[in-house]
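Handout, page 2. Input:
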Amino acid sequence: MNPIQHARISQKRRGGELEDYLGIHALIDSTKMLCTDNRHRILHTFWGVQEVILPIFGHHFQNSAGQSIEVKDLCEKDHLLVDFHHRFIPTLADFVSAMQDIPAQGLAKRLEQFHADVIDDPRLSATLLSPLAVTGQLKSLLITHNSWFINSILPMMGKADAKFIEFDITPAMFFNPMRFELWMDNGAVFPPSAQKLQHMQSFAE
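Output:
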């Protein structure tokens, strides 16, 4: 589905105008410009909502009908669950586990150098290091330590200005080697984080 289709779902459920919701859904799907298949869905996670969407749009907003809209609820029910056929919401660790072909040698030094060269405000460190905090995997930092996150996401958050520099790391560094898993394909199967949910559903049937 595209952002307009998701915005129509939000409008039908919550009232107001299509434009009330289009910006949020467009941002969730903005990673399509980085990867044109469903591997792009790194923001279709609780991490994406908590660390990217909410800092930009806030926890609530008022739609054109005067209703208070909870952004987290909108993201989950009108976009994330819809794209995975209401079966699950993957975790960031599910995506990171698909990044199996990224060379580990020298990665820590490269990320540390990127952080030192580009992140000149210590207040940004918690945001930039959040993938490591939730996954425990060093390679997850490639999701925030790259040209897209620095020059697109951080400025939208109002946390930093765009930098006119040559970037050592781009999103292609983690998207190109990322394996396409069937769970990414609109919830065709369950991701690693939802295996217990799968067993529970199978038992119930």
